[in-house]
Amino acid sequence: MAGTRPYPDDPAGPFPAPPTSFEDRDGRTIEIQASDDFETTLEDVVEMYVEFDPTDRAQGIPPTGEQRIRNWLETIATHSINVVASHDGAVIGHAMLVPDTSDPDAIDDRADVEWELAIFVLQEYQRAGIGTQLLEHLLGHASEIGIERVWLTVERWNNPAIALYERVGFEATGTESFEQEMAIRLG
Amino acid sequence: MNVLVGLVGSDESIKTLRQTVDRTNEVGDDLTVAVVEKPESKRSQAEMVDEAEALLSEAELEAEIVRLEGDPGSALVDYTEQGEFDQLVIGGGTLSPMGKIQLGPITEFVLLNAPTTVKLVR
Predict the structure, then answer these.
(1) Is the pLDDT of residue B113 over 60?
(2) Domain tally for chain A?
(3) Contact between chains at A59 and B108 (C-beta distance less than 8 A)
(4) CA-to-CA distance for A153 and B18, rounded, in angstroms?
(5) B58: number of CA atoms within 13 Å, CB side?
(6) Which domains does chain B have, with CATH numbers?
(7) Pairing of strands A149-155, A179-185
(8) Other C-beta atoms within 10 Å of A171: how many?
(9) What is the separation of C-alpha B94 from the centre of its chain, rounded to a whole number of angstroms?
(10) For residue range A159-184, what is the model confidence (pLDDT) as tens digits?
């Protein structure tokens, strides 16, 4: 399936790169950092997903239960690109890119691969502007390390998420099923 | 129960058939296997029919295999409507690299249009 999706002709951005620190709409100080070694951040991210309200799951992720969450993250950990948002030292948001290839060890140029994006923000931190910041900084980080093509799917009825993705420059690329596919070009 | 299983020729189809055959043997359902035409599939319609035959004989299960022409979703729903089926079984989605469950357009069409209970096999 790799290499088959349509992408906008023009690159979006530029996007800001992490690290950054800002005050959210509720006056909380939020830090955004890239996690270059995801193994060390994994535990904090697992903790966030344990707290995550399953009513906000999308297409089966995140799974529920600590062991299933751990298995899911460990499966994608080695080759994924991760940016996390924290408040008072705890991870409250996580955005990631996973390469769409059957052989991630063989990637020698990140621009050759399409990257799937997902982003989750803990419920009590939603609607405070954190998702937009997290998303923009993930794309800024991705652009810095040579990623050019990013895609995602979102449930077609999830209008707030679709609006967020459109705001940063994602374009709808197909509507033939329950999931809306969207794509953005960074370079 | 009278069960129809719909296959397109993907690896997911093989898994769906295996599980359905096991279930059929356990509970003594009547099974019909429908193989649709989906040109972009890993296996052609003929190859899928061959694999289905092999799988059924290996499981010592007698089931009619039919080939359906035309648009896959529509053909499956039409065939289900014409027969006396209690349940239509299809593959229940693929996983994206991220692990997201993705349902394709055929699945969506079948879910929205089939007159019977539809079972999605994961």
Answers:
(1) yes
(2) 1
(3) no
(4) 29
(5) 10
(6) 2-121 (3.40.50.620)
(7) antiparallel
(8) 15
(9) 14
(10) 989 999 999 999 999 766 788 999 99
Contact B97 A100 (CB under 8 A): yes
Question: Would A76 be classed as within a structural domain?
Answer: yes
Interface with A, mutate which of B12, B96, B98, B120 (most A CBs under 10 A): B98
**By three-state DSSP, how is residue A175 classified?**
coil
* Angstrom distance (rounded) from CA B48 to CA B42: 9
Q: Is A98's CB within 8 Å of B107's CB?
A: no
β-sheet bridge partners, residue B95: B101
ipTM for the predicted complex? 0.86
* Whole-angstrom distance, CA of residue B87 vs CA of residue B5: 8
For residue B19, the 8-state DSSP code is: H
CB contact under 8 A, A98 and B98: yes
In this complex, which of A101, A116, A176 lies closest to B98 when CB atoms are compared?
A: A116
Q: How distant is the Cα of B50 from the closest Cα of chain A, in angstroms?
A: 25
CATH of the domain at A48: 3.40.630.30
**For residue B102, which residues of chain A lie inside 8 Å, CB to CB?**
59, 153, 177, 179
